[in-house]
Task: structure prediction
Amino acid sequence: MKFYSFWRSLASFRVRIALNIKQIMPDEIVNVDLMKGEQLRDDYKAINPQMLLPALVDGDGPILFQSIAIMEYLDETHPQPRLLPADPRGRARVRALALINAADSHPLMVPRVRNFMEHELKLDETARETWIRHWITEGLAAMEGHLARDNETGTFAHGENVTMADICVAAQVTGAGFFKVNVEPYPTVMRIATSCMALPAFAKAHPLKQPGAPASLSH
Result:
């Protein structure tokens, strides 16, 4: 198994957590430096034509991409412990919570969006950071609304076991920390994220604990 990753990539962070939960150690981890634009090189474009991280090569067959799809693949090929509940309604809820982060919020702040805003729209850093904080906040508010309301919320996002929803909650909160977003209005989200980050599978996957990461980061 070969895993294409980068310390700063929150999507890669999600997959690192899933790999840790499943106790899967890739044979090779390939660093693709998003800050240097290495994802745009022809050799990586051959791996993932979308030129995004992460990507996973696991034996023969098509290369896997998109963090949600990779996590579901890992759950199907390594069923225990589960990342998705056994019941259809529970799976739908967990997927929906996960997609708030992975589909609705995080994609609006990735490097290709920030670069377009800077170079094509000529928006200054203040405007770009306002945009990013807005969409992080929207994601946090949506998560808080669901998690605080639903009886299915427990110690974790869906009951008493970690699911894919918790992985995405942790990623949303980590992104908020990178951009100094005020998280006080989201106590349920923060309670769950804190519980998650106390677990070794989450803690050792944190971006700032990866090779090449700085000691600290403001954004």
Q: What stands out?
A: Strands lie at 2-5, 28-31, 55-57, 64-65.
